[in-house]
UniProtKB/TrEMBL annotation:
Lineage: Bacteria, Pseudomonadati, Pseudomonadota, Alphaproteobacteria, Rhodobacterales
Active site per UniProt: D156 (proton acceptor)
Positions that bind spermidine: H62, D86, D156, S157, T158, D159
Full protein name: Polyamine aminopropyltransferase
Gene for this chain: speE
EC number: 2.5.1.16
Keywords noted in UniProt: Polyamine biosynthesis, Spermidine biosynthesis, Transferase
Record-level Gene Ontology MF annotations: spermidine synthase activity
Record's catalysed reaction(s): S-adenosyl 3-(methylsulfanyl)propylamine + putrescine = S-methyl-5'-thioadenosine + spermidine + H(+)
Species this protein is from: Actibacterium naphthalenivorans
Function: Catalyzes the irreversible transfer of a propylamine group from the amino donor S-adenosylmethioninamine (decarboxy-AdoMet) to putrescine (1,4-diaminobutane) to yield spermidine.
UniProt-annotated binding residues for S-methyl-5'-thioadenosine: Q31, E106, D138, G139, P163
Amino acid sequence: MSDWLRETLHPDYAQALRVDEMLYDSKTEHQRLKVFQNGTFGRVLTLDDVVQTTEGDNFIYHEMLTHVPILAHGAARRVLIIGGGDGGMAREVLRHTSLDHVTMVEIDAGVVEFSKEYLPMLSAGAFEDPRLTLVIDDGAAFMRETTEKFDVIIVDSTDPIGPGEVLFTDTFYGHARRALTADGILVTQNGVPFLQGAELSNSMRAFKALFADWGCYTATIPTYAGGPMAFGWGTDGPAGRVPLDVLQSRFDTAKIETGYYTPEVHKAAFALPGYIKRLLP
Ligand code: SAM
């Protein structure tokens, strides 16, 4: 009988992944970190027994949190990633050769070190890219203190429990808005609305108070079980109104090969089903 990892995220619903081989299981300063091998998903990273990313399906999540805001912006030079310790978000952001600089603020140096060793396919060399500055700090503290401005801010956080909780507060979102350029865009990991509706509602209430153009878009990621995942979107610029043919031409110019993102999917991702629409203020 093989072992299974049963996720502990939701009170009355859980997914389980077969553990073919446990490759790493240890406590960092902030959280318990495991990596194991699974037949379908390849290497799986969990923090406190919650799936963070897998070798098999991470492309959907990372592509949708990077190419959507960067291509919608159209002239981004500076990007900030909050969280993102596994390096997958940095990998996908840095595929845009037009970017000058990427700052990544991760609270847990253990996740970075460990991912470099056990999940090198996720970062795919991103940590060695001279355009990347890695800061080990609490993302909320960084956001409160920074005087820099960014064209795109991506919040690649854990769920709002433990160290990730501060990244879902009105205060944090307010500081994020201050750190954006005039037409800058904030995108956030906002959970699976079917199971985490209150989380999305709370974030959207804050976004509505802060941004002229606010809302969310979605993608379905197999290991973030329970239906589509929501990504928060907030900007005072025109990025939400860019037509399909312009997105297509920016995508062609960027020459990025994707597994999930297409300009059509980009546009369609903002069409929300009724039960998600009703969670928005
Ligand atoms: N995609 C995953 C999900 O939705 O479950 C999350 C990705 S994982 C890379 C999230 C990262 O956020 C972890 O490396 C964690 O250490 C980091 N993190 C959590 N709280 C943080 C904080 N307050 N500041 C910066 N990074 C934080």
